[in-house]
Amino acid sequence: MKYMLDHVGVAVRRIDDALPFYLDVLNGVLEDRYTSEATGVEVHVAVVKTEDKIIELLEPTNKNSPIARFLKQRGKGVHHLAYRVDDLDKAILEAKNKGVRFLEDTLRVNARGRRLIYINPISTDGTLIELCEYPTS
C-alpha cells in the first residue's frame, strides 16, 4: 500500500485569527471553507494550500466537539497527520493484519466526499493519523 502525506490538521481556537499567518506569511491560498456538524465531528474547517501541501485549520463548533476537547487537553497546534491511500478498505485491512488498531467510530465520508478513518494513537506511539481516500471523478 502506498501512503502519501495529504494534509496536516491544525487545531485552532478561531480560524479567522489563525488564517493571516497561513495566507500572508506562508503565502497560502484559501481553497475551501466549510462546517461539519456531523455527530463526533462538529468543526469549522478552512483548507489552505501552500505551494506543495494542504493545511486544514480546525475550529470547534461547540464545547463538546473532539477539537474542543483536544484544545482543552493539549492546546493549539497539530491535531493530526493525514495520509492519502488509493483504497481505504484495503489499507485498513493491511494495517489491521499488522496489529494496527483503529478508532472504528471515525470511519465516515466527510462533507467534501473524502472517506476517512483515524488510527488509534495507541498504535502510533501517540500521534493521531488519518487515512483518507478521495472519490474518483
Automatic annotation (TrEMBL):
Q: Superkingdom of the source?
A: Bacteria
InterPro entries membership: Glyas_Bleomycin-R_OHBP_Dase (IPR029068), MeMalonyl-CoA_epimerase (IPR017515), MMCE/EMCE_epimerase (IPR051785), VOC_core (IPR037523)
Recorded hits in Pfam families, A to Z, give:
Glyoxalase_4 (PF13669)
Report keywords, A-Z: Isomerase, Metal-binding
BP GO terms, sorted: L-methylmalonyl-CoA metabolic process
Q: Which family does it belong to?
A: Belongs to the methylmalonyl-CoA epimerase family.
Classification via NCBIfam families: metmalonyl_epim
Q: What is this protein called?
A: Methylmalonyl-CoA epimerase
> What phylogenetic lineage does the species belong to?
Bacteria, Bacillati, Bacillota, Bacilli, Bacillales
- Gene that this polypeptide is encoded by: mce
